[in-house]
Specification:
With about 400 residues, the protein is α/β, with parallel strands linked by helices. The protein has helices at about 15-25, 45-55, 65-80, 90-110, 125-135, 145-150, 155-160, 240-250, 275-290, 295-315, 320-330, 365, 375-395, and strands spanning about 5-10, 30-35, 60-65, 115, 140-145, 175-180, 185, 215-225, 225-230, 235, 255-260, 270-275, 340-345, 350-355. It is about 45% helix and about 20% strand. The strands form three sheets. It has a five-stranded parallel beta sheet, with helices on both faces. Strands 10-9-8-13-14 form a five-stranded antiparallel beta sheet. The chain has a four-stranded antiparallel beta sheet with strand order 6-7-12-11. The N and C termini lie far apart (about 80 Å). Bound molecules: arginine.
Amino acid sequence: MSNRLVLAYSGGLDTSVAIQWLAENKGYEVVACAIDIGQAAPGEMDRVRQRGLDCGAVESVVIDAKNEFADDFVGPAIAANALYMGKYPLVSALSRPLITRHLVRVAGDTGATAIGHGCTGKGNDQVRFEVTAMAIAPDLTVEAPIREWGLSRDAAIEWANERGIPIPVKKATPYSIDENLWGRTAECGILEDPWESPPEEVFERSAPLGRAPDDVEELTLTFDRGRPVAVDGRELDLAALVTEVDRRAGAHGVGRIDMLEDRLVGIKSREIYECPGAVTILNAHRDLEDLCLEQELAQEKRGLEGRYAQLIYNGLWFTPLKRALDAFIDTSQVYVDGDVRMALYKGSAWVAGRRSSQGLYEHDLATYDASDQFDHTQSEGFVKLWGLPTKVWARRQGNL
Ligand code: ARG
């Protein structure tokens, strides 16, 4: 009986070496499975697929999941304004449930009894892979060869060389990078000193401010039910739209995030993110909500957004609470339609104007000029009743 395992394959050193390790130590035939969610240059994923075979996989597949990632994961994150600790757009956290879903499906298609990932024991990604697997395929075995093996980079290279495994010859970078169309993450090396500025070489998707244009660029985003659907009037599917906004905002140095992050495994880590598109789109979306959401709903939603981001961060995408929050968020987005003009300049993306056919801004209520329709006389009674509990309390207990 076959003992097959579907491995989440990135083409990097760790997962390349893991193929042979899983065969030797656990008796698995490994199916390498690489998921394209916008992390690679055109053509690169073909090389990743071939490398999987060269490193000993019995089968190697590449799945183009860019649209699925955008539609099923990034879209809901936009609707929820999802930022972990108020800052991190959840680049890696959003991708792990999608990758796991594909591993499980390929396992079914290829008769595999296990899936595997290349995470260490120190991060959040192991949790996301494994808890997602528990949610959608509770009886499937999950292997974590890198966590179990615990090899250093040098030892892994030596181990591979002894066996003639053609490991990727990439120039050694001290950083651990993860990337997709929603952004790019960097950890390790000098970044582990929170006092040190990140060196310029860490960045790829955002221009340094010194090289950013000296003119403001404007970009208009159109939203339909909380989803961005067009840039400057040009309709695009979400994956293409995010990529386009990312490129344009990145040219202005927008989207660099430097933060100390609370990991689920209990440690604080210093993280550098580059998310020009995410930062621009989220700023625009939140602003449009301020125009379109009724205020009680808006306040409740703001309270739930942080919780939603935390669930995603903690690997709880496929859970009943997440589903219930989605129902709330979906309802809230029904009238979030309109255009937001974003200005891009020297690292900032700010809202320059917004409009909506569903907007709750009424000029005649807001204005201070002669067209004012607001009934000032009603405020007298309103203020008296609003302040009544305070007045009663003060009469009895004295002033503060
Ligand atoms: N700290 C971020 C997170 O937990 C980024 C993780 C990046 N993953 C990686 N394998 N380099 O979402």
